[in-house]
Every structure is written in C-alpha cells, then in structure tokens.
Design goal:
Distance between the termini: 36 Å
Pfam families: adh_short_C2
Largest sheet: 7 strands, parallel
Protein name: SDR family oxidoreductase
Family: Belongs to the short-chain dehydrogenases/reductases (SDR) family.
CATH topology: Rossmann fold
Oligomer: single chain
CATH superfamily: NAD(P)-binding Rossmann-like Domain
Number of domains: 1
Strand content: 15-25%
Strand order of the largest sheet: 3-2-1-4-5-6-7
Keywords: NADP, Oxidoreductase
Organism: Pedobacter fastidiosus
Length: 247
C-alpha cells in the first residue's frame, strides 16, 4: 500500500504493535509521529526504524497536559493528520477481589481517557477524509478470568469509536477498530509465563500467537483507500481465537 507523504500519528509506538505499525507506514512512504512515555524507549524505536520520516514525541497519553504536547507538535508542523492510530495501552490481569484503585485508574486513564482526549485534541488537525483506528482487543467480547478492568476499558473504547464514526462522518473521516487476539508483544512476554503463552497459542484456530507485523497490516488496510467504504467497524485479527475458544 502506498502512503507516500501521508501524515500518520501513532500513540504508543515504541514497542509491539505500535512499533510494527510505525515501521510499516514508514516503509510505505508516510511521515510518522510516534509517542511514548519514555524518552529512552523512543530513542530505541527511532534507531531501530532508522528513517528520517520518523518523528518521536515524549507524551504520556494518560495525562491531558502531555496530550497537549503532542497537539502542539502537530500544530507546529503545519501538517494535517491523514491517519491517527490510537494504540497506547496497558493491562493488569488479576481477579476482581485483588484490583486496586490505582490499577483501575491507570488502565482507564491510558486505555480510555487517553484515547478519547487524544482524539478530541487532534480533531482540528485531522484532514477531511482522514482515517482513525482504535486498538481494542478480543477481551472486549470474551470474558477471560482476571481481565475485568482491562476488558471494561476495551469495551468502552469500542463504543467511543462507534459513536465517533457517526459524529465524524460529515467530514468523511472514517473511524474503525482493530481487535487483536493473543499477539507476541513485549508486554505479553512480560505479563504471562511461558505456559500461559502456550495455552493462548493453543486456544487459537491457527495454533499460534500472532505477530505484531500481522496486526500492522490490518491497520494499514483500514487506513487505506481499499477500506474507503468501511467505518464504525471492528476488524478482529485473532487467528480464530474467539470462535475456537468458544467451541
């Protein structure tokens, strides 16, 4: 797909799906801005992609004051955003009786408030006809043990995206959702033991974990003209996880 000279903003672009998507857009000719909370991680991502079309912004999406930093960077660039990929997210898995207010707030602040207000603040900077993609998850539909708060954040994201698709249709801005299943990202590596990863792989029809680059391809499709009649839709990229797990 050709995104030559298109302008793409990716929140949470230092690792995993965000980094893979940044690589894919840069390789397709786009100018890309990625955000992250940690300057060192951003520098590592910049070195890995090693392309002058990549720009990095230190910005914690859970804080409105730092979303404003991203907004100012885009405003000062004088460019309109063609693709906004709202991808930043965190997850903590534990049973309801062990959830703390701190963990609850951290997940909702990053996964829901961050996406909502990033979209709000960047609306004036979106080109008419732009594409907005939210990262959700199959957990928004599934009822996995220990995922009550994380699942709730993704359910909220889905509804925000669906309403945004209707509200922004007058500007021909398409808003869609990509919901990955189990994908082998650094976050998954750190969050679950080896036996849990083996179980997740076995719970998919394809009998393996996804690769971040595979989710990136889905994002590029949704951002492209090939998806010009698709809005308000959730694309599930899960290797058959939901259907297979329910059998």
């Amino acid at each position: 797909m050709d995104f030559t000279d298109k302008n793409v903003v990716i929140t949470g672009g230092t690792t995993g799906i965000g980094l893979a998507t940044a690589k894919a857009f840069v390789n397709a000719g786009a100018n890309v801005w990625i955000t992250g909370r940690n300057a060192n991680n951003l520098q590592k991502a910049f070195a890995e992609i090693d392309n002058p079309k990549l720009n990095t912004v230190v910005s914690d999406t859970s804080k409105l004051s730092e979303i404003s930093i991203l907004e100012k960077v885009i405003q000062d660039s004088g460019k309109k955003i063609d693709v906004l990929f709202l991808n930043a997210g965190i997850a903590t898995f534990e049973p309801i009786e062990k959830v703390t207010e701190e963990n609850f707030d951290a997940q909702f602040n990053t996964n829901v408030k961050g996406h909502f207000f990033t979209l709000q603040k960047l609306l004036p900077h979106l080109a008419d006809g732009a594409a907005v993609i939210f990262t959700s998850s199959t957990v928004a539909t599934a009822a996995n043990l220990g995922a009550s708060v994380y699942s709730a954040t993704k359910g909220a994201v889905n509804k925000i995206a669906q309403i945004a698709a209707n509200e922004l249709a007058g500007r021909k801005i398409r808003v869609n959702i990509v919901s990955p299943g189990p994908v082998l990202t650094p976050d998954l590596e750190n969050a679950v033991p080896a036996e849990a990863k083996e179980f997740l792989a076995s719970a998919t029809a394809l009998q393996r974990l996804g690769d971040p680059a595979e989710i990136a391809k889905t994002v590029l499709f949704l951002a492209s003209d090939a998806a010009s009649f698709i809005t308000g839709t959730e694309i599930v990229a899960d290797g058959g996880y939901l259907n297979f797990a329910l059998k």
